[in-house]
Amino acid sequence: MPATSVRFDEVTLGYGRHPAVHHLDGEIAAGSLTAVVGPNGAGKSTLLKGIVGTLAPLEGRISLNGAGPGPVAYLPQAAEIDRSFPLSVYDLVAMGLWSRSGLFGGIGRKDRTRIEHALAAVGLIGFERRPISTLSGGQMQRALFARLLLQDASLILLDEPFTAIDAKTTADLLDLVRRWHAEKRTVVAVLHDLDMVRRVFPETLLIAREPVAWGETGHVLSPENLLTARQMVEAYDPHAAPCQRNAA
Ligand SMILES: Nc1ncnc2c1ncn2[C@@H]1O[C@H](COP(=O)(O)OP(=O)(O)OP(=O)(O)O)[C@@H](O)[C@H]1O
């Protein structure tokens, strides 16, 4: 599995002409396991959208280096996923194969075995025919992790994957995150549970509209840094004049 790194060169991301995150400069190392933390509105989801490519930088450049054959796998926040779509658990999980088989590629015997393995890995054997609209939040998250397993990506981005998920499901899905890390995939997760970040994630990026601290989790999550991040987001003025830091 060739690992993928993500390089930011003085990146500004935003909506319309309004920056949501700026002064992003640095690298998420290939094979690293990184948490992205920060207060509400800090720009964490925006950052992931920039990496996936659904949001083009207003300034600067984001480059993925060494991406393997698999695509970037991205799990959006639960609120962004349309659960009313008429789809069975099996079909949702099978969508993880699209990057390889194509939309109309058909599913062969090998693929069916892979889908079964993925369903087993997340504890959803027996749920294959269930419409996704009938799943609990935790079951839906398990199905989405099964889809991620099949995507077989070298870069995996997770936006608040454990929000409103119970302890058992969280523990099971965290095991998959650990497995991806052991397989040398690059994993980036937006998280609010700082205890979990300290326990599981060696690297952390703390942002508050711009990076506050980035590196080894123990250093990044200091009380001073967390306070600074909170103050920066609270002090943010959406009507302020554009930042001049890069203008010289
Ligand atoms: N589609 C959009 N159009 C305009 N502004 C947006 C859009 N999406 C996000 N924003 C704004 O960008 C800023 C950063 O939002 P973002 O969702 O990235 O923050 P976040 O750190 O993920 O927050 P949370 O922890 O609440 O999920 C916020 O001020 C938000 O209102």
Automatic annotation (TrEMBL):
Pfam families: ABC_tran. Keywords: ATP-binding, Ion transport, Nucleotide-binding, Transport, Zinc, Zinc transport. PANTHER family: IRON TRANSPORT SYSTEM ATP-BINDING PROTEIN HI_0361-RELATED, METAL TRANSPORT SYSTEM ATP-BINDING PROTEIN TM_0124-RELATED. Belongs to the ABC transporter superfamily. This is ABC transporter ATP-binding protein. Coiled coil: none annotated. The keyword ATP-binding applies. NCBIfam families: AztA. Residues 6-235 form the ABC transporter domain. GO terms for molecular function: ATP binding.
